[in-house]
């Protein structure tokens, strides 16, 4: 994995050179500029959405882990779009697709524990009524 991250800039450069050779240099430059602008727009939109979720949480609504995961993943996709190259753009598109993003998150996170729900006793309940007095006062 470490080798992949060390080779990623070179692989990105190779893909951009190949794109420029297949189409034109101007097309490759426009592609890089367009994905940069798209990444900035995604980050801006996601930032506004995160602040709205935080305001809702302050008013008493609880933020779930899934909501935070989605917010952070879409922000990460915006950052990936800003990196010039085709490999990170494909990774960003994978992250932007909601069901695919959740499936990948489940794969890396493993099975989620079931929430605790106390079991109710189905038997007959007896209520004992009475009064009490503390002896240590």
Describe the 3D structure.
The structure is a single chain. The protein is mostly helical and 137 residues long. The chain has one domain. It is 70% helix and 0% strand. α3 runs antiparallel to α4. Keywords: Membrane, Transmembrane, Transmembrane helix. This is FxsA family protein. It comes from Parahaliea aestuarii. One of its GO terms (cellular component) is membrane.
List keywords for this structure.
137 residues, 5 helices, single chain, mainly alpha, elongated, transmembrane helix, FxsA family protein, FxsA
Oligomeric form of this entry? single chain
What's the end-to-end separation, in Å?
Answer: 68 Å
**Major sheet summary line:** none
Count of β-strands: 0
**What count of helical segments does DSSP give?**
5
What's the number of domains?
1
Average pLDDT number = 83
Q: Return Rg in Å.
A: 26 Å
Strand content: under 5%
The class by helix and strand makeup works out as: mainly alpha
Helix content: over 70%
Following the backbone from N to C, one meets helices and strands in this order, namely: HHHHH
Which term fits the overall shape? elongated
Uncertain regions: pLDDT < 50 for 5+ in a row? none
Pfam families: FxsA (PF04186)
InterPro entries: FxsA (IPR007313)
Keywords: Membrane, Transmembrane, Transmembrane helix
Protein name: FxsA family protein
What is the gist of this entry?
This protein is mainly alpha-helical. Helix content is 70%, strand content 0%.
